[in-house]
């Protein structure tokens, strides 16, 4: 049962109202493994240079840089005037949001895909509060959208609308998925498809962008890792790994079988019989992902789909 005080509908579908909810949230303090520098406050630019933009013209004062004197205004007024610059803080913030089949899973509060959308909305609204431009790549199992960075509220609103659009009907589509592809249907390799989205993100990003990759990384392969390295070369990158409690461990005493759906078809998982092997495989997958990200010097954060997002992001 979803708590009505929380910004969720049924945990299965994604509504615009719950994404707009994060517009009203204050910048949270980091906790439970989430980096403060990622969630709130200023950041240091990766771009060297002046990083300044014109603000106004005023009368020259002792100590002002003579190179900034505005000679046209000086000649017109008869007194020395100088240009005043302010630090340019606007920065592109790009989000890669994964709604592929492996993300359409949840055992407690939310589907991982719904939690991913909530996290994307939270990060986007915070970027808007800083005056940054927001864009990115959103994709599901057969569609993708590229959003070029836009400033002000328009950038966030376009993002949240497209999050809802691409997520719509995803759970139903997976539930009705056949065991095997129909005759003539093109099979898309999940690892290759995920790599293609990373490639799109890399081409969209300008040097010095802040990049948030929101996924369960179930389909990250060697080629995808290479794309991550290329993205990281000129940008600040954080990997937000979505997980569900049932993916990490099976509840103690569970003996029932669980009907599961994957890209390979439908099947049954015997929770009691396969418990130990299940946990060992989950641990190996997690260690493999962490190793990939560590050797590319990419920040890694975990987000639980079984807990409200704001409880994980504030003390």
From TrEMBL:
Annotated DUF58 domain residues: 56-287
Domain of life: Bacteria
InterPro entries xref list: DUF58, vWFA_dom_sf
Pfam families on file: DUF58 (PF01882)
Protein name from the UniProt record: DUF58 domain-containing protein
Organism: Motilimonas cestriensis
Lineage of source species: Bacteria, Pseudomonadati, Pseudomonadota, Gammaproteobacteria, Alteromonadales
């Amino acid at each position: 049962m979803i708590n009505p005080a929380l910004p969720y509908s049924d945990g299965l579908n994604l509504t615009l109202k719950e994404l707009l909810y994060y517009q009203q949230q204050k910048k949270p303090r980091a906790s439970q493994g989430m980096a403060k520098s990622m969630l709130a406050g200023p950041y240091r630019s990766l771009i060297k240079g002046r990083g300044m933009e014109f603000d106004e013209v005023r009368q020259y004062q002792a100590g002002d840089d003579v190179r900034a004197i505005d000679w046209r205004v000086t000649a017109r007024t008869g007194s020395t005037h100088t240009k005043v610059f302010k630090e340019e803080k606007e920065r592109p913030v790009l989000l890669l949001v994964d709604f592929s089949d492996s993300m359409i899973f949840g055992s407690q509060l939310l589907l991982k895909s719904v939690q991913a959308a909530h996290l994307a909305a939270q990060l986007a609204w915070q970027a808007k509060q800083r005056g940054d431009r927001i864009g990115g790549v959103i994709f599901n199992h057969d569609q993708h959208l590229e959003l070029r960075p836009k400033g002000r509220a328009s950038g966030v609103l376009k993002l949240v609308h497209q999050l809802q659009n691409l997520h719509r009907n995803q759970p139903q589509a997976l539930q009705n998925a056949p065991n095997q592809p129909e005759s003539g249907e093109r099979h898309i390799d999940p690892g290759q498809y995920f790599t293609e989205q990373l490639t799109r993100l890399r081409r969209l990003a300008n040097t010095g962008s802040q990049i948030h990759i929101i996924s369960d990384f179930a389909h990250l392969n060697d080629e995808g890792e290479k794309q991550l390295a290329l993205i990281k070369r000129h940008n600040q990158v954080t990997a937000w790994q979505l997980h569900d409690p049932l993916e990490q461990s099976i509840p103690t005493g569970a003996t029932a079988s669980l009907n599961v759906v994957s890209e390979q078809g439908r099947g049954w998982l015997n929770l009691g019989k396969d418990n130990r092997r299940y946990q060992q495989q989950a641990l190996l997958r997690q260690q493999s992902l962490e190793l990939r990200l560590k050797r590319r010097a990419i920040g890694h954060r975990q987000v639980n789909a079984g807990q409200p997002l704001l409880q994980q992001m504030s003390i």
